[in-house]
Write a structure and sequence with these properties.
Chain lengths: 709, 213
């Protein structure tokens, strides 16, 4: 727990520095600080100096904190920092850290084992970026690094723990909500509270759609979809907030870059955000004399630091910002994929490892667009997915009734309902704001978000048609691909409504303006109330992240204990064991589970991934080719005993883990085992040690102290 | 004028937090009042109807679940009130999840137990599982002891309306902590909102009156 509190302290130091030096509102600083941290750790990871670079970062944060407190008195620094937004971030982060440190939730979902949680564990165990660190994956880990970088950062000084990953994600969400509230001063408390409630409830509100009778963990998940949506919202409210407060715009750049590197398909979010910002900068093209005079006066030495502040009002400044925004959305992802990952894959190739190929997103996009415009004939899958996606967006067909609104996705309902409510919020914001120019900007922002929504949906459509296989269904994981965008759009709408609620009351003005402000404040209260009501109806506290019962992780704890027993039995302490996995009925899930649980010992892919015939080359299911008896090899990979011996020698296998064997396995390979697999069949052991090499490789049973499960 | 405003606002919050803490204790007292008249009633396995589970032969107070959905159903002739239901037992292997369902329907044999009326087990320091129904009137309760199947349960004690220490009525739960900490913040915000609206309206009236005079 202490390591996370140190991380929060480091972030706070960085926030203090950002606020004092660059005069941006304190509520914006956590998101900027976290994004910069994520980028730093990603870069030093790519350069191969992850641990050293991490230490340097902590030292730099500490130094900057001390420096800025020395320069500006402690009292005034703290007074400036304590906005409702920053208080929410700081207290929230500490509370989450303490709560999760006590309850210690663990990984519990499919992709957490196959990707999100495992890459963090690999990073932490090796202090090396997961792309090059040793693991049992038979492919290069190409996942973009923002989220694992933050997860690694918060537990830098401590031991690896799964709940620390969840704490990292929660701190990220809190920084986004802080950015949402950043434009609200302490004296406008009646706007800060409902706005904070809306922000905090959003992850549940936009992802839960049914009454939940079992534990439904939303904040406690390491999937990247909600973070992508939240940071999408975060970068937009950051940009518009900075413009509203006439503060420098460069803090947007690190956040855009970090957003682009959260997930492959949310790179599009970053592009959309950059596009919206470019459009907004184009809007007030001519500088106004009165705007320039309302800028804070600065001493000449500070001019460079906040050069960005006045830059947004000059045409050359705007062009520079437009270019920078587009670059920071595009360049990081391009650099990662085309330079760094390409290098990693090339290095693996020269070491003799061939990675399985997949269709590049751009060729998929090209093929799909050709079909869309009739240049190529539409494939069956194209038409089916097209219809399915329209149906999911427009119609709710649960319980046999067909109602308009879209397939249930959030507490508001389905796609159409969500877009409708967001539109209503935007319309409210536009009507209730008195400044005409701001109204136009909001209208343009809405139009741009709508266009980008269509573009994003199209990108998902292309993925479904060309990248996902037929066996995975027409629209797999539809909800979590879509709700990221809805989260971003929704929070932007709420932000604009909050701006209407924050309009100053001037007794000299016509009363209609005061009424508009109060209506806006009331609207936020009302919406917060709706969210609280819906959330309590669908998600009782004892099934949620806050109050889940002790039983929730009982099966995961049993699995962890079993893996610990295996590790202890094998552990010579001197080396990392490499384990060959056998499970004749696995579909892949058990392999990913044990691969994760047995780290730092490595569960080998256990076969050649590109082997022809069979389900996937290895990963657990085997038979000697002659025993296939003419069956199609869809369930078993065919290896002759000698092939297995040679594989194990080449791969450096030290143990074999027989999770589940069947008669076919016994008949095929008993000759390789010194006891003919007797002990495994009796349930006396599941581990066999490797002795010898090549054609004289034999496996001897390992005595296990604890009864096999 | 401004100092007055700050003091006013602080006063509002102090009052609200005071009210919240008071409400917390009043709710605890109310629950104590509801359940103190209930008599503790020890039960044996014979009082239950066993579904997907069997009594173990030659062993008193032991049963085994025969599939992953074992159920122990208890009912009385008339609807009855339940405070804290306790289940003290040991099992030969981990059982997974333990839940208690209750129903207030007369015809529960046909309508069954709804997922809406489900309570998850909590454990006392001595290992006894308990479920707090807080004096609800029910027609039947159903204990699902495990979700694994093949678990042999050795029962020590089952009690309806087990004694609950006075202090336990005031034990903090997730929702009560949230309500006490965050409720006053929200109510305070609403109060400030209304206050500012009223003040602005009155100020506007004053300006109007000045302008019209």
């Amino acid at each position: 727990m202490l390591d996370i509190l140190v991380a929060v302290l480091a972030i706070t130091c960085l926030c203090l520095f950002l606020k004092n030096q660059f005069k941006i509102s304190s509520g914006f600083t956590p998101l900027v600080a976290l994004s910069t941290t994520a980028l730093w750790f990603s870069v030093v990871g790519m350069l191969g100096i992850l641990w050293a670079g991490g230490l340097v970062w902590y030292i730099v944060c500490g130094v900057l904190g001390v420096f800025t407190l020395g320069k500006h008195s402690i009292k005034s620094s703290l007074a400036n920092m304590l906005s409702p937004a920053f208080l929410l971030f700081l207290l929230g982060s500490i509370l989450v850290c303490i709560y999760l440190g006590i309850r210690q939730p663990v990984l519990h979902e499919w992709d957490e084992y196959s990707l999100w949680g495992t890459i963090v564990k690999i990073m932490k165990e090796n202090n090396e970026l997961y792309t090059t660190a040793p693991s049992g994956f038979a492919w290069a880990s190409t996942q973009t690094p923002t989220l694992p970088a933050i997860s690694y950062f918060v537990q830098f000084f401590g031991k690896y723990a799964e709940w620390k990953i969840y704490t990292a994600y929660s701190i990220l969400y809190l920084s986004v909500i802080s950015a949402l509230m950043a434009t609200v001063p302490l004296r406008k408390y009646q706007v800060a509270v409902p706005l904070g409630i809306v922000g905090l409830l959003t992850p549940w509100f936009m992802t839960v759609y049914n009454r939940e009778y079992e534990a439904k963990l939303v904040w406690l998940s390491s999937y990247g979809d909600i973070p992508a949506g939240m940071v999408f919202a975060g970068v937009l409210v950051l940009y518009f907030g900075l413009r509203t407060k006439k503060q420098p715009l460069w803090p947007v750049i690190p956040v855009l870059a970090a957003l682009a590197l959260i997930k492959d398909n949310t790179f599009v979010f970053a592009l959309a955000a950059a596009g919206i910002m470019v459009l907004d900068l184009l809007l007030d093209w001519r500088k106004k004399k009165d705007e320039k005079s309302s800028l804070p006066r600065v001493s000449p030495t500070k001019k460079i630091a906040i050069l960005g502040n006045s830059a947004q009002y000059t045409w050359i400044g705007r062009i520079i910002y437009m270019v920078l925004f587009l670059l920071s959305a595009i360049a990081p992802y391009m650099l990662w994929t085309n330079c760094y990952i390409a290098g990693v894959v090339a290095a693996r190739k020269s070491a003799g490892i061939t990675d399985p190929n997949s269709l590049s997103p751009f060729s998929a996009l090209l093929a799909g667009t050709k079909m869309l415009f009739g240049l190529e004939e539409k494939s069956t899958r194209f038409t089916e997915v097209w219809q399915e996606m329209w149906k999911s967006f427009l119609w709710n067909t649960t319980n046999g009734n067909k109602r308009i609104g879209g397939a249930p996705l959030s507490m508001l309902g389905g796609g159409l309902m969500i877009v409708f409510v967001i539109t209503v919020l935007f319309v409210f914001a536009i009507i209730l704001l008195k400044n005409k120019k701001v109204r136009v900007r909001i209208g343009v922002a809405y139009g741009a978000m709508l266009l980008c929504f269509i573009g994003y949906t199209y990108e998902i459509f292309i993925s479904y048609v060309f990248i996902f296989g037929d066996g995975q269904g027409l629209t797999p994981s539809y909800n979590r691909y879509m709700y990221g965008y809805y989260i971003g759009w929704f929070l932007l709408a709420v932000y604009f409504l909050a701006q209407a609620a924050l309009q100053t009351l001037n007794p000299q003005e016509k009363p209609i303006y005061a009424i508009k402000t109060f209506v806006a404040q009331g609207a936020i209260f009302a919406f917060a109330g709706v969210m609280m009501l819906r959330t309590s109806m669908l998600l009782p506290l004892y099934n949620s992240d806050i109050g889940y019962t002790q039983d929730t992780f009982s099966s995961q704890k049993i699995e962890q204990n079993y893996a610990d027993v295996l590790n202890q039995t094998m552990n010579s302490g001197a080396q990392t064991e490499r384990i060959f996995y056998v499970n004749q009925t696995d579909n892949g899930e058990e392999w990913f589970l044990y691969h994760y649980l047995l780290l730092p010992n490595i569960l080998d892919y256990s076969g050649i991934a590109t082997k022809a015939g069979g389900p996937g080359g290895g990963g657990g299911t085997y038979t000697a080719p002659e025993l296939l008896n003419g069956e199609p090899a869809t369930n078993y990979n065919t290896y002759a005993p000698l092939e297995l011996q040679e594989y194990m020698t080449d791969a450096g296998i030290t143990y074999v883990f027989l999770d589940e064997i069947d008669d076919r396995f016994v008949d095929s390979y008993a000759s390789l085992f010194t006891d003919g697999l007797q002990q495994a069949k009796n349930g006396a052991t599941v581990l066999y040690k490797v002795n010898g090499a090549g054609s004289s490789l034999m496996l001897s049973p390992v005595e296990m102290e604890v009864a096999v499960r | 004028m401004k100092k007055n405003k700050i003091m006013w606002n602080r006063a509002i919050f102090i009052v609200l937090y005071g009210v919240a803490i008071l409400a917390y204790f009043i709710v605890g007292l109310f629950q104590w009042q509801c359940t103190k008249s209930l008599q503790a009633k020890p039960l044996t396995l014979e009082d239950f109807t066993l579904v997907s589970s069997l009594l173990v032969e030659n062993e008193p107070n032991a049963f085994v679940s025969t599939d992953p959905d074992p159920q122990l159903v208890y009912t009385q002739e008339q609807p009855f009130r339940v405070g804290r239901f306790t289940f003290s037992a040991t099992s030969n292997k981990p059982g997974g999840e333990m839940v208690l369902y209750y129903t207030q329907e007369q015809d529960y044999l046909t309508s069954g137990f709804s997922e809406k009326n489900k309570i998850w087990a909590k454990q006392l320091p001595n290992g006894t599982w308990y479920f707090d129904l807080e004096g609800k009137e029910v027609t039947a309760i159903r204990l699902d002891p495990d979700t694994v199947g093949g678990v042999v349960w050795q029962v020590n004690k089952i009690e309806l309306n087990a004694a609950k220490s006075f202090g336990a009525y005031f034990a903090p739960t997730g929702i009560s902590i949230l309500a006490v900490l965050l409720g006053p913040l929200l109510v305070g915000a609403i109060v400030l909102y209304i206050k500012q609206m009223v003040q602005t309206f009155l100020q506007g009236k004053k300006v109007e009156m000045v302008q019209s005079s």
